[in-house]
Amino acid sequence: MDLGLNGRWALVCAASKGLGRGCAEALVREGANVVITARGADELQRTAEALRALNPAAEVRAVAGDIATPEGRAAALAACPQVDILVNNAGGPPPGDFRDWGREQWIAALDANMLAPIELIKATVDDMAARDFGRVVNITSGAVKAPIDVLGLSNGARSGLTGFVAGVARQPRLAGRNVTINNLLPGAFDTERLRKGWAAGAARTGQTVDEIMDKRRATIPAQRFGTAEEFGQICAMLCSAQAGYLTGQNILLDGGAYAGTF
């Protein structure tokens, strides 16, 4: 199926690796031009080269910077001739006990995982509406549906973004002009971040990484971890011309791990 993305411009945040890179790859394969951002300049440039090799017809621009800062957002937006597609993404805050967190930790989590996406949405959706096409996908977390006790910073910040999107996505001046805003909620995906978590768990408990992986895998009905490639393909589907009637939704990708009906 042709997703109707050829020639569109996409801004993909935290795209040098993991799920952000998976989204950028899927969009480039569909013919979209992309601006990718991340804090690590060297890895970002390597990713940009790999994306160009996937589809030489697509233009790929790399902008190193912190999307959680006004300067980082301004640089990324300036590199994109127009934003038809916005993929908001940022690394999650660290786990821990809420008793140990002060205002500094909370503000950092909110800046990265709630306020930065809102600022980018604010900067782009009205122009999308003026062109009668726009797609915003926020990469949040499966913890929005099933909170994890040690991820309180993430639970709070991402749930705040979810509530904000629920209202904004339904504004007729956006939804009525073919501008959609949806959230993608990943469960356990085989990424560098998850592997670091496994390594930390192994060091803390004395188990091997393989033992921790096997136990986690057994809790997933699909009996495997997700891949960044398949996550990116779902993202591209949400960005497609065919997805104009889908907005304000939380799409959970977790291999069936969440056991709720709703």
TrEMBL record:
Signal peptide residues are: none
What the entry lists under Pfam families is as follows:
adh_short_C2
Output the InterPro entries linked to this UniProt entry: NAD(P)-bd_dom_sf, SDR, SDR_fam
Q: Which family does it belong to?
A: Belongs to the short-chain dehydrogenases/reductases (SDR) family.
Task: Indicate what this protein is called per its UniProt record.
Answer: SDR family oxidoreductase
Higher taxonomy: Bacteria, Pseudomonadati, Pseudomonadota, Betaproteobacteria, Burkholderiales
